[in-house]
Design brief:
There is one protein chain. The chain is mainly β and about 120 residues long. The chain is globular. About 0% of the residues lie in helices and about 55% in strands. A hairpin with a 4-residue loop joins strand 7 and strand 8.
Length: about 120
């Protein structure tokens, strides 16, 4: 089992940047595929990005490709999401998740979830 805790959310103006972090504890971090999802107001939770066990492979949603970067630090049991050129439509609660399938874009592909961190982008 693994426990996940997100941090780094906040309020930013359109065009700005934020870096989210997800700290993992428990079972070996490197044995999990890690993902980021988001859920906007009145919307379903949607896939944002995922990174493989070693960090050598990544997959992004089309809506964030070229603006977001996912990376993992295995030594620190942490996964990051660098978000650049933010838009108001990026406003959502962002969740970190851990699973064992690759590549995994569906909510049901992930077994463990953090509590989420709010990202608000003002226009």
């Amino acid at each position: 089992q693994v426990q996940l805790a997100e941090s780094g959310g906040g309020l930013v103006q359109a065009g700005g940047s934020l870096r989210l972090s997800c700290a993992a504890s428990g079972r070996a971090f490197s044995s999990y595929v890690m993902g980021w999802f988001r859920q906007g107001p009145g919307k379903e939770r949607e896939f944002v990005a995922t990174i493989s066990w070693s960090g050598s492979s990544t997959v992004y949603a089309d809506s964030v490709k070229g603006r977001y970067t996912i990376a993992r630090d295995i030594a620190k049991n942490t996964v990051h999401l660098q978000m650049n050129t933010l838009k108001p439509e990026d406003t959502a609660v962002y969740y970190c998740a851990a699973g064992e399938k690759w590549p995994a874009r569906l909510v049901d592909d992930y077994h463990y979830w953090g509590q989420g961190t709010q990202v608000t982008v003002s226009s």
